[in-house]
Design brief:
The structure is a homodimer of 610-residue chains.
Chain A: H1 6-21, E1 25-28, H2 35-43, E2 48-51, H3 55-69, E3 73-77, H4 87-96, E4 100-106, E5 132-135, H5 143-160, E6 167-173, H6 185-199, H7 214-226, E7 230-234, H8 245-255, E8 259-261, H9 281-284, H10 288-293, E9 298-302, H11 311-317, E10 322-327, E11 338-343, H12 346-358, H13 382-399, H14 411-421, E12 427-430, H15 435-442, E13 451-453, H16 464-472, E14 479-482, H17 485-490, H18 493-500, E15 505-511, H19 522-525, H20 535-538, H21 545-551, E16 555-559, H22 562-572, E17 578-584, H23 589-608
Helix pairs in contact in A: 1-2, 1-5, 1-6, 3-4, 3-16, 5-6, 7-12, 8-12, 13-23, 14-15, 14-22, 16-18
Chain lengths: 610, 610
């Protein structure tokens, strides 16, 4: 008896349904069990198939794409432990609210629980980190089975793009044969039926649009109206936050409040100077005197938890300040002191808040419960913003001028020239640990108009090259990733992924002896562990990064001076594929550089506030 | 107020308790949150700390160690997504029954659920793949808290080494400061109490010893006594199975039954010729005529599911053969046709079975229910074993003599010379996909006395370098890994892990254009997909493996002829650290080589059985 070809029909309908729902990118890792789906995906005119060997790298690539597109990329892998490698990126996607669909091909039910090779229980493989799980069941041939498959794909898509977008797992078992067969007589009926079903429009199941609750906006507007000394703090946020820039700065200007915007918020690198932005707020807030004197009465926190290490000190020293949070969907209150959390899309919430402030306060509105009004607490403090701006100027002076000469490279110089070398509209991808901080320490927001890609969902040092390669593959302009050497070693396969990705990516890695963030922690600063034990934290396993990059197919530049860095950056931006710039920086440089800047800034700020 | 140092006391007691329970190896990945535990582990005289950047690689390393030692290695990582990288190795450990303890450091409870950085819900991170989960709670100072910590460590150890050993997760939250502090007055009491508790002997909680059920042994002995044509098939098994070799072959000789032992069973590479072992059973069973004529009445399957692709054909063509399974703990019956499964340690079960056969059948024993006795079914068939051995000789002839000349390298020649170059008592680590099959196809068991390390729990192509490096770090003799190029690219960080591992490892990788197992599948053989789509399965992403290995610190040899291979193997065995031998093999060679061998063997066997 000739084998049936039901699996090809089933796979085609599955893939067509995902495409009809909105899928455009399939990220496939090699394996036999996923063959029917890969064959169908390769044949589909609207789908691009990316092939990445390591499922972990593939998953970060897919999540990186979706951070740019807002649309789930579809992961496809074989059965067994393959799907387990998606877990770290699934965690990041779940935490960051990024849609992704993971299809784990599976063995049929008769090969479950009896130690058939490459067979594990794949049910709900990602536990609470997946928004939904569905099992397609074995390829079926009745109309109801075929329609249920199409419905499940519509559901998976809908649930991946819900109130807080996230990962969805689809488990898809197939029996051998896995490759397409000659259709026999029995196959023709189901195939015809599947084709007809696939030609019908797919059910659209749009999740509702979230909008900030009007009562919350009114309450917040009441608070804001009464505040004399407010601070707007912008933590990590989606690329879409870039649309809220004008509204945010117009609100800040009108209130006379400083904007502390870290790079990942999308509010920092506007390419324009600003009368409200405090570029070097992390440095400014190192001054204990400044922190003490600048008592806020309201903090408007936008997006995720700020990366700055000095911001929490400031917050903790003024626990009575009313803390309001504008958040897309996260309870991002690491201080446990929030008083009002307004959920909803950031741009819309800011616009609505501004409009509410325009309206006269309606004292009869029950939902507004202002704090008791005292003479001291009405109207903005005219000195407030000016003090912040003056301190920021001091900090800026401590930074400026450091990177002019052709001196040995420092983290500061690297960051400075990297940002300035990028064309406006580029995507700057930032690694966690030091890179995401370096940029805020060393580069003012007027330097460039940039979108900033990061992985601040779980804030890991993992999957950064893979994720940035995925983001670059969808970004209309240039893309560059600044990533630490330990992160690079953690995501070695990401180099291969970036090399084979459809669009160029420049990777800048400081070869500084690994894990230098630990130099900044008490562990090293206070010599709390013996010096010879420090490598267990800093992991100085420097391979020959140049040779490594080249062996994997990346172009590579070595830079050890400002001029060689500038040259490498300029050349890399003209090159296709993955280019790696290995910047040699002496270990511990960042500590010294930071100490100097902080000392100079604090000295000037303290004098000002004597 | 000076900070408390409770966390150091707590971490010391935790680490001391694990060491008292039996831990010897800590595999740590860098991070801040795990600092108290890493400090305590580094200070402990009985513990060796291995530092591996990528948690995924670290976990496979730990599991590789435990496959050799039988003792859980202890993983240690920071909070957030770090622990998610353990997942693939946790899956392998769970499926293969290997003990491992994963300590995920965590943020304190007050930083849970409010988007503090590097904070996710780490509860039960590995779902059903962990045997147990415990949370230590925050560092405490009462006697009961301290005693509970010690008890939880004893429990974790006990549960990791249970009936089927496996992974246990310990979640350990810490609050800042994380580095050791000057102990203040308040700290002295708890520290003294913890030291006293740690000096008491830890509770021993040995899991019961498993022994095959006597009734099962009797039933099976009854069946075996009546069988005329039995087959002993040995699938993947733990290294400890090596102890059962003498018992197994003595049983087979006495019964006159062929032993089909794949390399991963530990029963193949004995270094001695055998009157019962059928070395090339996979090739022999490619002959449809042989399969049809050699009707078995009993199959005694030992260990896991056989890797051979022809074995299931043979089994399926004789569904009436009584299938008995000797298994340590797995229901390893991919055919769904087992009639008797005897759980228990393999060596002991075989010995007990042999002893039961020695006793006269006691017809009055209710637990023995022999099949109806017919004249045809009593006593062994004297031609049975001879036919198998003759067929094996034909297959052996088709293989032998192929690798004599200094011809271009093939998979066969590579495997042949690799095994012969290893000193007796070496550890041969085999990658999945082709390597694990190559050895069975090309090398007879008399070639060498070897222990064979593999990852046949979930049979993935993942974590093989990392796992082998872990196994090598604990093996008393030489260790060599034969691994495919796609597997190597999947586990790139494994090269770095092997380079920094405490003992040498030779890695032999065939550079053959990637994923050649797909050449052997219908997908390629029947041209079921267009040729230009094949790379999506074979993934021919050949980097410069030599340069890659060198950049990461491995010594490297390139081999493209038998003589250069032999030279490289000889030299590598003298070298410390990680040595990589990149063997250039033309893509598709394996298909042609296999086709030739199978054709010659089948021709000779078919003539014999005409």
């Amino acid at each position: 008896m000739a084998p049936r070809d039901l699996h090809s029909t089933w796979a085609r309908l599955l893939v067509q349904s995902l495409a009809d729902a909105g899928a455009r990118d399939i990220v496939s890792s090699p394996g036999a069990r996923s063959t029917p789906l890969l064959v169908a995906a390769l044949a589909h005119p609207d789908l691009t198939v990316h092939s990445i060997i390591d499922e972990r790298s593939a998953a970060f690539f897919a999540v990186g794409q979706a951070k740019v597109t807002g649309r789930a990329s579809v992961l496809l892998c074989t059965s067994g432990s393959a799907g387990a490698h998606y877990y770290p990126a699934i965690v990041e996607a779940s935490e960051a609210g990024v849609p992704v669909i993971a299809i784990t091909a599976d063995r049929p039910r008769e090969l479950q629980g009896n130690k058939a090779p490459q067979t594990i229980d794949q049910t709900n493989l990602y536990g609470r980190f997946a928004r939904a799980f569905c099992d397609t069941g074995m390829p079926g041939e009745t109309e109801d089975e075929l329609r249920s498959l199409r419905r499940k794909m519509a559901q998976a898509w809908s649930r991946a793009h819900g109130a807080k977008p996230g990962p969805v797992q689809i488990n898809a078992p197939f029996r051998k044969p896995l490759e397409p067969c000659e259709a026999n007589d029995e196959d023709r009926g189901p195939r015809k039926m599947a084709d007809e079903i696939a030609r019908e429009p797919i059910v659209r199941a749009e999740q509702p649009v979230a909008r900030a609750h009007p009562d919350a906006i009114e309450r917040l507007a009441g608070r804001v109206r009464m505040a004399r000394r407010g601070v707007i703090a912008c933590g990590p946020g989606a690329l879409a936050n870039g649309k809220a820039r004008a509204a945010l700065y117009s609100l800040a200007t009108r209130l006379g409040w400083p904007v502390l915007a870290e790079s990942t918020s999308q509010f920092r690198f506007t390419g324009e100077s600003s009368e409200t932005r405090i570029d070097f707020f992390d440095t400014v807030l190192r001054s204990a005197r400044f922190r003490a004197q600048m008592k806020p009465d309201l903090v408007l926190s936008i997006g995720g938890t700020l990366t700055s290490m000095s911001w929490p000190l400031y917050r903790a020293e003024h626990p009575d300040a009313f803390l309001a949070l504008l958040s897309e969907h996260d309870w991002a209150d690491a201080s446990n002191r929030a008083r009002e959390i307004v959920f909803g899309p950031i741009a819309h919430t800011i616009t609505t808040l501004a409009r509410a402030l325009d309206r006269r306060q309606d004292a009869g509105n029950d939902s507004v419960r202002p704090a008791p009004v005292t003479p001291d607490s009405i109207g903005p403090d005219p000195q407030w913003l000016a003090s912040w701006k003056r301190a920021d100027a001091h900090a800026g002076k401590a930074v400026a001028g450091r990177f002019e000469n052709d001196a040995p490279l420092t983290e500061g110089a690297l960051t400075h020239y990297l940002v300035h070398a990028l064309p406006a509209g580029s995507l700057l991808a930032l690694g966690n640990s030091l890179p995401v901080r370096d940029v805020d320490w060393f580069v003012p927001g007027a330097a460039r108009d940039l979108a900033v890609w990061s992985q601040r969902g779980a804030n890991g040092i993992d999957g950064l090259l893979s994720g940035a390669a995925g983001a670059a593959s969808k970004w209309p302009g240039r893309a560059a990733l600044y990533v630490g050497d330990v992160s690079l070693l953690h995501d070695l396969h990401g180099v291969l992924t970036a090399v084979h990705a459809p669009k160029p990516l420049t990777v800048i890695v400081p070869a500084n002896g690994g894990g230098r963030i630990f130099d900044l922690l008490p562990l090293a600063r206070k010599r709390a562990v013996p010096q010879e034990a420090l490598p267990y934290w800093t992991t100085p396993r420097e391979p020959d990064f140049n040779a490594l990059a080249r062996s994997l197919g990346a172009a590579c530049f070595a830079a050890d001076t400002v001029s060689s860095l500038e040259k490498a950056l300029a050349e890399s931006h003209e090159m296709p594929g993955c280019t790696m710039i290995v910047a040699s920086i002496a270990p511990r440089t960042v500590t010294a550089e930071q100490d100097e800047i902080r000392a100079a800034a604090t000295h000037a700020i303290d004098q000002d506030h004597a």
